[in-house]
Design goal:
This protein is mainly alpha-helical and 104 residues long. The protein is 57% helix and 11% strand. The protein is built from 4 helices and 3 strands, in the order αβββααα. The chain is elongated and about 60 Å long.
Length: 104
């Protein structure tokens, strides 16, 4: 049986830890999440963990908005600038909703 890659086993541990923290708010987490750098650090050992989001981002191609907007604009019979503007409006509206839900 092949060994589980180290990053996968850590991701499972972080998921379990998150579940346990959310069930028991008095539990002191052994791992701290730093939002700006999107990293996790073990409080006792100082070991750093890469988030799954960051890890997957290393292998994902960036979204080419110009090319896709050109294709969508042609299909819909509108300008590329209008498509890009609509996407930005929707993205900003989504960010506002997320921020409002965090500040509830």
């Amino acid at each position: 049986m092949p060994a589980i890659p180290l990053f996968m086993s850590k991701a499972v541990d972080l998921t379990e830890l998150w579940y346990n923290i959310n069930r028991d708010t008095t539990m002191k987490a052994p791992i701290t999440f730093d939002e700006p750098s999107h990293t996790y650090t073990h409080n006792e050992t100082g070991e750093k963990y890469t988030s799954v989001t960051t890890l997957l981002g290393k292998y994902k191609k960036p979204f080419d908005s110009e090319t896709v907007a050109t294709r969508v604009a042609k299909r819909e019979g509108v300008s590329k600038d209008l498509v890009l503007e609509m996407w930005n409006t929707e993205k900003n509206a989504h960010v506002i909703v997320v921020l409002q839900s965090i500040n509830c």
